[in-house]
Amino acid sequence: MSGATFFRDEAGTLSPFWRFVLIVAIFLLIWPPIFGNVGWWMKFDFGPSLLVGVTVIATWSYFFAPAALFAGIIHAVAAISFHYNSVWVPLLTAVCATILIMVSISAIGPGPTHSLIDVPLEGYVIFIVASLIASLICWRLTRRFARLA
Q1: What CA–CA distance (Å, rounded) separates 101 from 73?
Q2: How far, in Å, CA of 34 to CA of 23, rounded?
Q3: What are the Cα distances from residue 42, in Å, to 36, 130, 131, 140, 143?
Q4: Rounded to a whole number, what is the distance in angstroms from the first to the last CA of the chain?
Q5: pLDDT, tens only, 44-79
Q6: In whole angstroms, what is the distance from residue 19 CA to residue 118 CA?
Q7: 3-class SS at 14?
Q8: Burial class (CB in 10 A: 0-12, 13-18, 19+), 92
């Protein structure tokens, strides 16, 4: 079995397993830096970011990799298993990723009384907009793999 046939099915397209892996990998690599930079820009708005600032923010944003993994899995399952790849998928993913991030932050937050209710509304808005932008960009990048289904 050659390397080219290992990734392809009988029709000559990528197998569903490899499409799933590629969609999730794109989300894991691209989603966190976009999320981090959009969130930082919305929260602080220091004007045009310097390259060093963007790089540092992108590096530290991989703290949100579990949310990116979750978003990638939602997109891959919707595209490959359900053959559904509309703009509603990134919207749903943004809401789910925001909830996951807010629950994660509240779990490691200060003291036992810190909960999701105590978070100001601004925190939800920043996370959901940043998550939505990151999900839409990654959704657009992965449409090629989803259309094969």
Answers
A1: 16
A2: 16
A3: 10, 8, 12, 22, 27
A4: 23
A5: 766 665 667 777 888 888 888 889 999 999 999 988
A6: 40
A7: strand
A8: middle
